Write a sequence for this structure.
């Protein structure tokens, strides 16, 4: 029996009518590489984009660079961040750059205005230009620069796929069981971006969540997930659902979003992961789908789900802030619960 | 044989991999109410949103209000507009409001910063708050207020579905052959927004394009389409694809976009229309799909299509403005060319 490429993830309703629809693929995996639930085709290959940041930050810890530079959990959370350019993000990134003897101009990511609106407006009012420091990936880039400093790599060209700092990242993915010679795209921030199937992404993320790796790598994984879980306001920003969900679940559910509506959730206590992609790349369906999956699989309680209702079924308002519609996730019933063979590794 | 709800509209490619996908429904109709081509289910009901603005502006002309207030083609183009809040939009809207003895505070649309970035940044730099005048629908609202003044209706409550100015609009849709008692949602700008099937939307738009109506209504339709075709920079804004396509086709293709990726094209010379909805509401697939359909149906020449290549297959860049991907529309082959009975009215 053929698996459908996509399943319905959410409906966007206005009044009584469904106005728009989002499809997607989601895979729940454990650290043994088993897919324990799924919707849509787990073999679909796409880019996890910034959902790969915890993997990109791993060399920063396991190389000893984080130790050598005495990086705090906030630094590690920022290395994994798609941040919103708020003061707490850019001040830490600037101090960190200075500590490793780098300048903002060493960051390969181009300039970007903060995604945090108040901060953006404040900059525009002050006549301040957009900068690479405010780019949502500046923490990740600073992490790569730190690895370069610590390992004695040239900083020049660190954005290129053949640079040793990128090779560390690719080798790590292979170590975790990802296919070798992954197709590479270029990310919005100029770094190489590997393409993986949803199934493979979920499998390596479950190993990351469970700390299933030899030597000091397991401890490095745990340190990064704990940093993201303890300081989600550094990995995302004020008011971001990552903060609310980490708090509501007592840090049991830590996730990292990626551009074009990717999401990768790490559940360290369960040793599980959820990889999720909204087919059309629209992020508005991503969090409702995540919460619905967590609820369907009983990974969060009814009470936890209720405390997240505003993120689970976001209300759509008009320009006078009156409610006119709602995003309603699919039910994500465990349709494949009894047929694990269709999705096994 | 069952028609699929959606067909593929466009792929979003990054490097060698398809990163995201857009599905949709499109219907091409003539003024006899015949569907001459289609992709996806023409019976799908959704909201045309701002694509209805030419219909909403019709009472402004046929009531005699436009004549009485000596409105120019630019005024009519603005009444049909989802504008970008540039100076030429807001100055005309402000002068028009003053001419009918109204204030900005009479506009029911809430405040909005201009969608035109330079104008928005200029306002923020000047410490200027967002206003209803800058809302992309301020021209439509001023049109409704003008009808109220001319017909002696109360201005109070013109945003409500039972207000006589809204009833004029609903009656017009019924006159053109739309089903009666359409479901109503509330638009982003607070006005009632009717839901129609793609097929019905295309049929009434083809009648509009062909001026297929009794009395002075036909002339009113022609006047509005000519106004939009001659002054697309008032109906949209600087650099908008509506301007480029109107110019490239010698005003043969005039279209009006709506929120959540609706598009309604009027081809007055051919007496045809195209109604198009990207299923997920993402507007980036809309213009590539439109141009691909125009090309597949030979409604534009190869040379015209080539002059629009930047809109037909938009390049995706990273934060350093380097090309990293492309939006690639489906081929839109006329799969139903020989089976018109599947889609006839």
């Amino acid at each position: 029996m053929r698996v459908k490429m996509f399943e319905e993830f959410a409906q966007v309703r206005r009044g009584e009518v469904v106005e728009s629809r989002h499809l997607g693929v989601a895979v729940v995996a454990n650290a043994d590489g088993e897919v324990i639930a799924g919707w849509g085709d787990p073999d679909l290959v796409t880019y996890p984009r910034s959902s790969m940041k915890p993997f990109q930050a791993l060399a920063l810890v396991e190389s000893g660079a984080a130790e050598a530079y005495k990086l705090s959990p906030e630094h590690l959370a920022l290395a994994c961040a798609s941040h919103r350019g708020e003061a707490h993000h850019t001040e830490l990134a600037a101090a960190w750059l200075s500590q490793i003897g780098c300048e903002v101009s060493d960051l390969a990511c181009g300039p970007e205005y903060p995604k945090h609106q108040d901060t953006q407006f404040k900059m525009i009012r002050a006549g301040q230009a957009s900068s690479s420091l405010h780019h949502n990936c500046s923490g990740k880039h600073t992490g790569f620069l730190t690895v370069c400093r610590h390992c004695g790599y040239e900083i020049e060209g660190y954005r290129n796929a053949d640079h040793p700092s990128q090779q560390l990242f690719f080798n790590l993915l292979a170590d975790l069981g990802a296919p070798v010679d992954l197709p590479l795209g270029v990310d919005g921030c100029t770094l190489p971006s590997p393409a993986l199937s949803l199934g493979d992404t979920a499998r390596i993320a479950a190993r990351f969540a469970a700390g299933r790796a030899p030597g000091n790598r397991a401890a490095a994984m745990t340190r990064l997930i704990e940093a993201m879980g303890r300081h989600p306001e550094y990995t995302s920003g004020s008011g971001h659902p990552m903060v609310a969900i980490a708090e509501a679940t007592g840090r049991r559910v830590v996730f990292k979003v990626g551009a074009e509506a990717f999401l990768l959730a790490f559940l360290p206590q369960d040793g599980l992961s959820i990889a999720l992609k909204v087919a059309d790349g629209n992020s508005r369906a991503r969090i409702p789908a995540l919460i619905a999956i967590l609820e369907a699989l009983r990974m969060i309680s009814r009470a936890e789900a209720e405390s997240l209702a505003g993120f689970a079924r976001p209300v759509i308002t008009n320009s006078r802030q009156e409610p006119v519609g709602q995003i309603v996730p699919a039910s994500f019933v465990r349709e494949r619960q009894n047929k694990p063979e269709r999705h096994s590794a």
